[in-house]
Write a structure and sequence with these properties.
Oligomer: single chain
CATH class of the largest domain: Alpha Beta
Number of helices: 18
Shape: elongated
Helix content: 40-55%
Largest sheet: 6 strands, parallel
CATH topology of the largest domain: Rossmann fold
Radius of gyration: 24 Å
Bound molecules: nicotinamide-adenine-dinucleotide, uridine-5'-diphosphate-xylopyranose
CATH superfamily of the largest domain: NAD(P)-binding Rossmann-like Domain
Length: about 450
């Protein structure tokens, strides 16, 4: 039996520890956070994040071998294995601002661990970090004069929000990086044994520390790069009457390319892609690899362009002005099945439309509270309406910005009747039946597809 602690009860710490506790009744798992409200929510049936299937997993282990607490110091001392899953956002100040990772929460945690430990421990990097962070971590932890030894492992998390439980239950791989020393190898083994309780050994990959840390940034860069690539193609499709969905299917059937992550849309969002690519860009620049830095930076530039291009298309289609027009945005979350709005393209579109003085109504089944907080002062100018039918009443246009399955099944005939005409639909996720909408009377614009309008010149 091991005492496992996770510092940071966010989108990663909460779900990962819940799945570990559920599958490993032999271990005691505690999750701590400085945020009292979040810990209280983890202890209730109203969890702090929306994630399908998560409540069931939490309930299966909570109170048995899964505990949530704000008592960080005491739990540090009791732990044998400590996962650190605190936030590592892009730095907003000083050297590396706008690209480098902000490691202040990370370093505070390292110091807190060493200050509150009375026996040696394994410390696991679960947060996404710049390559070679483990070296700094080791130096801080092992600079104690109490004879304590800390083994630092890298164990990046690959779960995606919305599918976090399934991703953790049956991951493509678990990656563990460690030092090639006797105690390093033992620590890797101890962590591998935890995962091997429910994950086949052949899926548990062990590497050196630096490869493990860097693999996480590279995995996200590759995934995001595919999205930016298909989005670049979508722009060309719109000019040439090619259809980006047909192209994605045609190229995706080539097994060398594969069919995943080829959905064109209004751009990628989420807390990871942009942050991790910019981190990679910063690392390349730091090592003087400017061409490599520029290559990866283009993925982010492409993404920003896609979001702005979408808004620009809306304005052009709606007779070059949206000022004073009610526009219903369906979706605030950065993807379906999550309430997370961090870096959501929906909010980027919302901000741009507000600048154009549109009257924006934002609708989402789970993300409106987060959207309101993220929009800050601008929230006063937005109407938040969870009911999509109410949101579209009187609107000149609907823009679908999150791929919630329910949006494809809405009664668009009912919406069309209640809207201002001519009525527009902008499908930023390619989830709607364009032809059916066109037949109802809508002017329909979708990413990477020819527009379908009732206007004379077809534009
Ligand atoms: P989050 O903001 O949801 O959670 C981080 C938590 O850490 C917060 O609740 C915060 O209060 C807590 N915290 C910060 N400093 C603390 C301290 N000193 N002591 C105790 N708690 C502290 O972030 P997240 O989305 O869970 O991401 C965490 C890490 O995992 C990041 O490095 C991220 O890049 C990485 N990651 C995220 C995802 C994802 O899908 N969100 C996936 C893979 C990896
Ligand atoms: C991502 C990584 O997938 C995950 O492995 C990592 O641990 C965290 O970052 P996440 O951001 O939760 O996960 O969701 P993901 O499914 O990767 O989607 C990211 C963004 O890309 C979303 O906005 C999504 O809508 C968009 N996307 C994804 C597309 O636009 N097209 C696609 O084909 C796939």
């Amino acid at each position: 039996m091991a005492n496992i602690l996770c510092i940071g009860a966010g989108y990663v710490g909460g779900p990962t520890m819940a799945v570990i506790a559920k599958n490993c009744p032999q271990h005691r798992v505690v999750v701590v956070d400085i945020n009292e409200a979040k810990i209280a929510a983890w202890m209730s049936d109203d969890l702090p994040i929306y994630e399908p299937g998560l409540l069931e997993v939490v309930k299966a282990a909570r109170g048995r071998n899964l505990f949530f607490s704000t008592e960080i110091n005491k739990n540090i001392d009791e732990a044998d294995i400590i996962f650190v899953s605190v936030n590592t956002p892009t730095k907003t100040f000083g050297r590396g601002a706008g690209k480098a990772a902000d490691l202040q929460w990370w370093e505070k945690t390292a110091r807190q661990i060493v200050d509150n430990s009375s026996h040696s421990k394994i410390v696991v990097e679960k947060s996404t970090l710049p390559v070679r962070t483990a070296e700094a971590m080791e130096r801080i932890l092992n600079s104690n004069d109490r004879g304590l030894h800390f083994d630092v492992l890298s164990n990046p998390e690959f779960l995606a929000e919305g599918t976090a439980v399934d991703d953790m239950e049956a991951p493509d791989r678990v990656l563990i990086g460690g030092r090639d020393t006797e105690s390093g190898r033992k620590a890797v083994q101890a962590l591998a044994d935890v995962y091997a309780t429910w994950i086949p050994r052949e899926r548990i990959l062990t590497t050196g520390l630096w490869s493990s840390e860097l693999s996480k940034l590279v995995a996200n860069a590759f995934l995001a790069q595919r999205v930016s690539s298909i989005n670049a193609v979508s722009a060309l499709c719109e000019k040439t009457e090619a259809d980006v969905t047909e192209i994605a299917k045609a190229i995706g059937m080539d097994r060398r390319i594969g069919s995943n992550f080829l959905k064109a849309g209004v751009g990628f969002g989420g807390s990871c892609f942009q942050k991790d690519i910019l981190n990679l860009v910063y690392l390349c620049q730091h090592y003087g690899l400017n061409e490599a830095a520029e290559y990866w930076e283009q993925v982010v530039k492409m993404n920003n362009w896609q979001q702005q291009r979408f808004v620009s298309e809306m304005i052009t289609a709606m007779f070059n002005t949206v000022a004073g027009k009610r526009i219903a945005l369906l979706g605030a979350a950065f993807k379906a099945d999550t309430g997370d709005t961090r870096e959501s393209p929906a909010l980027a579109v919302c901000r741009s439309l507000l600048e154009e003085r549109a009257h924006v109504v934002l609708s989402d089944p789970y993300a409106l509270e987060n959207a309101r907080a993220d929009l800050g002062k601008l929230a006063d100018k937005v109407i938040f309406e969870p009911d999509p039918y109410k949101a579209t009443e009187g609107a000149h246009a609907i823009a679908v910005l999150t791929d919630w399955k329910a949006y494809a099944k809405l009664d668009f005939a009912r919406m069309f009747k209640s809207m201002t005409h001519p009525a527009f639909v902008f499908d930023g996720r390619n989830i709607l039946d364009r032809k059916a909408l066109f037949d109802l009377g809508f002017n329909v614009y979708a990413i990477g597809k020819p527009a379908m309008t009732h206007f004379e010149n077809g534009k």
